[in-house]
Write a structure and sequence with these properties.
Length: about 325
């Protein structure tokens, strides 16, 4: 257990060949996902302070060989730091806590293979296998419908790995980081993570093995047109883009008409940050005494929270 005012001691380990070592201490959230770097007074030890209470601590160790090759390993995060006093020293030997290997930074083969020995690594060949909820790295969902990512964590022999914690980190469009979560594999090594809201990228990780999934969520847009209109008159298309997450500049909206078996552009416009739009057609030039089908479509935008949106079809009769 990590306790305030106790000292964490870091063993620099044993390395093949000659190398320069660089240490970066970091303070992480309770899930060990989001971390902020900090610099203690000494590289090899650090006394936990009041600021660390409720957080976890870890260290990135970078070895630079004489040939210039760099290899970075990360120690397992400490337990969540508690406020009440209790003995805890991070070092090798019988006093080391169960979650931390006896020699956390000993890596006799790091420079040769890039794999740290003695660190908490996933078994060789560990991998994620998704079910039908994910296809080619992408999961799809309709507007306001949750997306559940399901799969199985397997070892190199395709045997399930039960009862293990997976770190989940997701980011929205534009790279904005969202709060991290932890999910656990069941007795058959299966896991599930439910995503709600707009599109995002989801990263599932078990120790040093990770897998990314793009969650593509469709948006929603409404359209209002008059049922009848006179040829040669001004016409207005109105509606609203739903779901929020609209950038300050708004989003582009295209009004389309169905003619000769295809959807064709009538006019482009923009929805305001509140989602509302009004696009005018100065002079209705369509042939009279006919019925036309219209729809509104949001043009994809990298800053909008959704992938696409198309309104229901609206019919309008043009009179002479």
């Amino acid at each position: 257990m990590a306790v305030q005012d106790e000292r964490l001691t870091l063993d620099q380990g044993r390395w093949e060949g000659e190398a320069d070592l660089d240490f970066q201490w970091k303070r992480c959230d309770v899930n060990g996902v989001r971390c902020d770097a900090f610099t203690p007074a000494h590289n090899y030890d650090y006394q936990l302070s009041e600021r660390d209470v409720g957080s976890r601590v870890a260290v990135d160790v970078t070895a630079i060989s004489r040939g210039g090759k760099q290899t970075t390993v990360t120690t397992p995060v400490s337990d969540v730091v508690k406020a009440k006093p209790r003995s805890f020293t991070w070092l090798e030997g019988p006093d080391a806590p169960a979650e931390v290997p006896a020699n956390p930074l000993t890596a006799s083969n790091v420079l040769a293979s890039g794999n740290p020995a003695g660190l908490l690594l996933a078994p060789a060949g560990t991998h994620f296998r998704y079910d039908k909820s994910v296809h080619r790295g992408k999961a799809r969902a309709k507007y306001r419908r949750p997306t559940t990512i399901r799969g199985t964590l397997l070892d190199g022999n395709n045997k399930p790995l039960p009862g293990l914690e997976l770190q989940v980190q997701s980011s929205g469009k534009g790279g904005k980081q969202l709060p991290g979560k932890v999910v656990r594999t069941d007795k058959q090594g299966r896991y599930r993570y439910t995503s709600r809201g707009p599109s995002r990228n989801v990263n599932l990780a078990y120790r040093n093995v990770a897998s990314d999934t793009k969650v593509a969520v469709g948006g929603k847009i409404g359209l209002r047109v008059p049922r009848k209109a006179k040829r040669g008159r001004k016409l207005a298309f109105q509606g609203r883009v739903l779901g929020g997450h609209i950038p300050k500049k708004g989003v582009a909206v295209a009004i389309q008409v169905h003619r000769k078996g295809k959807w064709r552009l009538v006019k482009n416009g923009r929805a305001k940050p509140n989602g509302k739009y009004r696009i005018t057609w100065p002079k209705l030039t369509a042939a009279a005494n006919r019925q036309y089908k219209f729809r509104a479509r949001v043009i994809p935008d990298s800053k909008w929270g959704y992938e696409h949106a198309v309104s229901p079809t609206k019919k309008m009769a043009v009179k002479s």
